Amino acid sequence: MSMLEGKVAIVTGAGGGIGREIAIAMALAGAKVVVNDIGASLTGEGETSATPGQQTVAIIEQRGGKAVVNTDSVADWTAAQRIVQTALDSFGRIDIVVNNAGILRDVIFHKMTPEEWLAVINVHLNGSFFVSRAAAEHFRKQGSGAYVHMTSTSGLIGNFGQANYSAAKLGIAALSKSIALDMQRFGVRSNCIAPFAWSRMTSSIPAETPEQKARVARIQAMGPEKNAPLAVFLASDAAKDVNGQIFSPRMNELFLFSQIRPIRSIHSDTGWTPELIAERALPAFRSSFVPLERSGDVFSWDPT
Hints:
There is one protein chain. The protein is an alpha/beta fold. The chain has ten helices and eight strands. It has a single domain, classed as NAD(P)-binding Rossmann-like Domain (Rossmann fold, 3-Layer(aba) Sandwich), CATH 3.40.50.720. Helix content is 42%, strand content 13%. The protein has an eight-stranded mixed beta sheet, with helices on both faces. Helix 4 links the parallel strand 4 (96-99) and strand 5 (145-150). The chain is globular.
């Protein structure tokens, strides 16, 4: 039996890139899939189109799978309810939610507008909450369900010019952990993937200096399909004991990410004053400070 046989999955942002590959892989693994995509530009602006989602559905059907398209926006509470209802109306149940939909509005922080901030937060963070929340009651009632959320090393580690995206993606990691804690009693799991792939979401990475060009070349070598096997596994019953974790596939590598914990402590019998912190705590902590790095600094070697 295929790993997702009999299950119904929603994959948001499945009109292309990572989302499309996950939707196809889940269908090949036996799931019936709701392919959600509004068909907008990378920035989320301009006209929308059902064509990208329909193309994904066509690929799935050509390979013998079952899928339907949905063009509702994840960034709207009522529309998110309709996304889940599409699964119920089309296939009678919902077992898996993959929160993949996203846009980019990359701007250096001191030039970022409220509109650029809110647009990205609304799609990534609010959208992940809205769709997850819409499915939660159904998961609770049936005593099972799996969430797979897309976080990013831009949030987990850091990146230039992406305050909105980084904040949203780190927020998604916290959202996933909260869902895992709150819903484990109902047999519901929630995990994150921090994907590495050349797709529409990474095509805006600057490639002007030799170092930037080398980094982009490394990412271009990683196709979006490399993330799909991990998503299928996390959505399957084989991952029934995996909850609240963050994983990352990078070409043929798999990473399990740490999550924030205290790394150093210092005690004062008399309490702390600002002066005492400067005199005693700062020297003690300095060697343990987290470096001011971005994702490309940490993942600096060629993928294999």
